[in-house]
Amino acid sequence: MAKVVPPGAPAPQSVLGWDGTDFYVLRVDATGHLQVDALTTALPAGAATAAHQITQITALQLIDDLRNALQSVGTDRLQVRGEDQLFSLAGVLSSTRAVVISGANGYVDSTPIPANRYGVITNVMAQDATTATVFHLYRNRHDGADVDFAIQYQAFGIGQSSQWHGHVFLDAGDVVRVYFGNALAGDNCSVNITGYLMTVEV
Question: End of a domain among 63, 81, 99?
Fold first, then answer.
């Protein structure tokens, strides 16, 4: 509803706008505020644009990716990925396996290396607790194939152990296989391995 001008008040005036061709009455809202629709505006130098925002979002995402690579934000331990060459200490390897061999000059396999681990064998001990033996042959059994890495020729008495020191690397499922020269079927033989386990890069 239009307002009534009280007696004695100055007559209302309209402010006109010129577009270069015609005049237009400027509009106000119900509280008298001028209503302006900005069709175009010039941004000041350095003002934010959609392109700037995309660049900033990309940079922030890279920072977030680095943060996610930290094992713990509190201790800032960075997890680094190698190319199937990086592994780390997973635990101590210490195992004894004793079996009754099924044939003459038989063998005993050590406990297999667990899945997703490498085994580094640094010490092997082997013995026949039933029969005196004349040699102990050490083999690395990998993917169903045996590779010799040591042999000890000696008159081993009953229960006398042979011992090897060094470094042999085993994959998951691999074993150290020890043959007992002069052993008999039914002998109680054992193999003890010590070393350490390492994690596999994935």
Answer: 81
Give the angle subtended at the CA of 41 by the CAs of 36 and 47, to the nearest 5°: 130
Structure tokens at 185: 């079927």
Region of 32 on the Ramachandran plot (φ > 0 left; ψ -120 to 50 alpha; else beta): left
Encoded amino acid at 125, one letter: M
Distance CA 124, CA 194 (A): 7
- Residue 134 amino acid letter: V
* Rounded average pLDDT over 8-21: 74
Please give the sequence-ordered ranges of beta strands (E in DSSP) within 10-104, or none if there are none.
Answer: 16-18, 23-25, 89-100
C-alpha 144: how far from its chain's center? 29
User: Bridge-partner residues for 168, per DSSP?
Assistant: 121
CB 136 within 8 A of CB 162: yes
Please count the structural domains in the chain: 2
Q: Is residue 170 part of a domain?
A: yes
Contact status, residue 180 vs residue 133, Cβ threshold 8 Å:
yes
- What integer is the mean pLDDT of 117-125? 96
Distance between CA 88 and CA 202 in Å, rounded? 12
User: Would you say residue 120 has pLDDT above 90?
Assistant: yes
d(CA 175, CA 53): 58
pTM to 2 decimal places:
0.61
What domain range includes position 77?
52-81
